[in-house]
Amino acid sequence: MELPLALSDMFTKTAILPLLSLLATMSTGHPLSDSAPSSQPKPYTINVDPEFIEETRIRASQFRQTEPIDAPAWFDGPPTSKINDVAKYWAEDYDWSKVQDGINKNFSHFYTTVPSPGGNYGSNESLDLHFIHQRSNRDDAIPILFLHGWPSTSLEWEKIILPLTNPEDDSQPAFHVVAPDIPGFGFSPAPKAPGLGGAEHATVFASLMEQLGYDRYVLYSTDLGTVVAMSYIVDYAPRIINHVTDFYMVFPTDADTARYAANKTTPEETVYINSINSFLTNHSAYSAIHSTLPLSLAYALNDSPVGFLAWRYQLAWSVSDVDYTFDELITDTLMLYIPGVYGNIRSYKELFGLDSFAPKVPFTVPTTVLQFGGNSHYAELANFNYVPKDWVERTAKVTYFKRHEKGGHFPALSQPQWVIDDIRAALA
Ligand SMILES: *[C@@H]1O[C@H](CO)[C@@H](O)[C@H](O)[C@H]1NC(C)=O
Ligand SMILES: *[C@@H]1O[C@H](CO)[C@@H](O)[C@H](O)[C@H]1NC(C)=O
Ligand SMILES: *[C@@H]1O[C@H](CO)[C@@H](O)[C@H](O)[C@H]1NC(C)=O
Ligand SMILES: *[C@@H]1O[C@H](CO)[C@@H](O)[C@H](O)[C@H]1NC(C)=O
């Protein structure tokens, strides 16, 4: 299928450059069009074209500053002083090659091709996937597939992969970890057509696990990955040992809303509903754009790496209780900027919706729900992750439930040991 002009132009300027050096046989057109499709995973070394990294650094150095107004920090968006400083750091000090060496050295990377999942996906072409596949030495290790969301990539799991594969204590369960980049994120090229929804993503990752020879495995999900999991646990139920999630959304029913209006909800229900209302009313503009007209925004974000950093930083700040170093902010931004911003922000259009977080019936898969609170730098969002347990049980067969007082939306980064302990306890 020929790419529309605007899209192919964007590929030429962004994705194709970093991917060029990966593929000796590649010439022009789509990044992977000249590489022979391979249904056999191949070891892979991340090697983003240094010219692209330099071009991006120059863009950061030419960032046009915004004049602040006299308002509290984070009132309208990330503080201008912080963004000016991170732009300067990007221009003068940030070192992608060091980061890339760490990513390559720490984990075993692979690349493969899976068939078009069909369904609503508008292309018959296969999809290319980058993934980390870290195998345990233990014969009794359990396979586990990690599904990240936006604005993350496979790097969200960087602190828990190695401890899960080889626990120090032999009495603890061990895992073979599979951590893909969702298409359009990190080093997995974006889908070539609309329609890669939750069910289609599930088929893509089920194909990946088949290639790796894993018949039954644990599924770990967060954020938009949870939307994929909601199809996965129904369409591929026999394959899932347990669905572990740190982001399980249940929205109020009409009956809940009526009880809320009549002041009949429990205090726990009330603060949860208030947090959800606040998020949907005052903190979710990004998802409204991503899920309606993503290309209209992608031009600007793809043209300004610092502007894109500020855009994703706002969300990361809103949903987490940690702050980020400049290195973390830039690396996390690059991981979504390298493949091209359009391909990952538009995933909301395929995955996000209030009903997309509920599984189709019947749901039979044993489910582990982990709740990490202190969910935000904004007090009004603090209870966003505290879905009442009896609400969770409406849409899941809960086998393990744990609520932590902090950790926010990226607990595998902010409280990795708690996540490791919970996964082990849930599967023990
Ligand atoms: C790689 O491992 C080193 C040493 O454990 C650590 O400092 C670094 O943050 C890791 N990098 C990534 C990308 O995980
Ligand atoms: C996919 O292939 C089938 C069979 O060749 C064809 O009927 C269909 O139109 C194709 N769909 C797309 C989106 O190319
Ligand atoms: C619920 O409580 C609020 C605030 O205490 C009050 O204003 C409102 O009238 C109450 N609603 C009902 C239906 O009792
Ligand atoms: C949204 O923000 C406005 C302005 O700060 C505030 O008045 C309103 O209560 C907020 N809405 C919700 C649902 O929290």
UniProtKB/TrEMBL annotation:
Where does the record place the catalytic residues? D223 (nucleophile), Y348 (proton donor), H409 (proton acceptor)
Q: Under the GO molecular function aspect, what terms does this record hold?
A: epoxide hydrolase activity
Q: Does the keyword Signal apply?
A: yes
Task: Tell me the keywords, alphabetical order.
Answer: Aromatic hydrocarbons catabolism, Hydrolase, Signal
Q: Does the keyword Methyltransferase apply?
A: no
Instruction: Give any single GO term for biological process.
Output: epoxide metabolic process
* Signal sequence coordinates: 1-29
Recorded hits in Gene3D superfamilies, A to Z, give: alpha/beta hydrolase
State the source organism's domain of life: Eukaryota
Domain Epoxide hydrolase N-terminal residues, every copy: 41-157
The similarity comment for this entry is: Belongs to the peptidase S33 family.
What protein name is recorded for this chain?
A: Epoxide hydrolase N-terminal domain-containing protein
